[in-house]
Structures are given as C-alpha cells and as structure tokens.
Amino acid sequence: MLPAETVGIANHPLRNQLSNEVHARPYEQLTAPLQASHLALLSDETRLPEERMSISALCERFAVPPISPAARHFSADMGTFRLKWERHSEFSSYTFFHSAPFDQPFQEPAIGRVPREWLAQLPGEILTATHVALAPSDYPRQKIEELARLFASNTVTGSVVTGGAAQAWTDFRIHADGFSRF
C-alpha cells in the first residue's frame, strides 16, 4: 500500500492501481531480428465484447485457441505473425510481431501479414501507429546517412541505450503509410 504522500506530494488515489495495471500483463520475449507494428485504438469499454469477438475470429481463421470471454489481454502465435492485445480503460493496443531480416525493415512491416479486412473492422480510432525494427546485436553499426535512408531521408534522432548495449533511432514523423518508425 502506498503512503498518503511521497516526498511531501500527495499521491493520486489511483496511483497504486495504475502501477499494478502496468505489471499485470506478461511481457513478450523478443529475439532480433524482429519487426513489430503497434496500434493503439481509442475505444470505450462498451466495445470490449466486439474486440474479443474480432480476436476470436482471427484465432479461428488461423486455427489458434480462442481468447477467453473475460480476457483483458491476449497473446498468440498465428503462424506468420504473433499478436499481443491489451485492453486498457480508454483504449486497446494491438502489437503484431514477425521475425525478419533487418536489411529493409520498413518495406514489409509485421502488420502486412495480418488480414487487411480484419484490421479494417477493428473498433476505435488510431491514437498511435508505429513500426519498430530490432536488429541483432551483431548487426554492423550504420552511419547516420545509412540510418536516415530507413526513415525516408528525414533527420533522425537517436541515442545509445541500456548502458551502451543498444541504440534507438527515430525521426518522430508519421510516414506515408500512417505509421511512425523506430
């Protein structure tokens, strides 16, 4: 249980509940090279049964055991891609993963393996649409000009992360396909 305040500042009444929510869902084990496409769709709680039905239909299409009727998160290997779905209070997130070489990571993103008609019927409006490409640790370091080509020659911003074990790069732009890139 949280104290009433932290460093002299009152804690929000939902702080503990929000913290627990973040840790309630299992993390995906990721192995590079990997592509991921992530959608966050704004939709209220009344759309939850519709979301579960959509996911169940996708599971049936790929001969995967269906989502539980009470689920608020779900993860399954669909064969050509992996789906992770999470329902939050105001939105749902869908992340699609696919193992693929890193050479041209945004040409054929992970979401391209998901049936387009299934995506089109998802309830809600897009808050965020992002493609992520993970290169293996032994992938040759690239010059900034080479990295910029992955981002339509835009100016890229990056940093060394995890104590120098990795690099993260983006251009903070929405591209022609409607997705940002990392």
CATH architecture of the domain at 29-137 and 177-181: 2-Layer Sandwich
* Succession of helices and strands: EEHEHEEEHEHEEE
Which CATH first-tier class of the domain at 29-137 and 177-181 would you pick?
A: Alpha Beta
Determine the strand fraction and express it as a percent band. 25-35%
Query: How many strands, what sense, and barrel or not for the largest sheet?
Result: 6 strands, mixed
pLDDT average, as an integer?
A: 90
Proportion of helical residues: 10-25%
Structural class: alpha+beta
| Envelope shape | globular
CATH topology of the domain at 29-137 and 177-181, which one? TATA-Binding Protein
Describe this structure in words.
There is one protein chain. The protein has a domain at 29-137 and 177-181: 2-Layer Sandwich (TATA-Binding Protein). It has 4 helices and 10 strands. The chain has helices at residues 15-23, 48-61, 116-120, 144-150, and strands at 5-6, 9-10, 34-42, 73-77, 82-87, 91-98, 125-134, 157-161, 166-170, 180-181. The strands form 3 sheets. It has a 6-stranded mixed β-sheet with strand order 4-5-6-3-7-10, with no helix packed on it. The protein has a two-stranded antiparallel ribbon with strand order 1-2. A two-stranded antiparallel sheet has the order 8-9. The two termini are 37 Å apart.
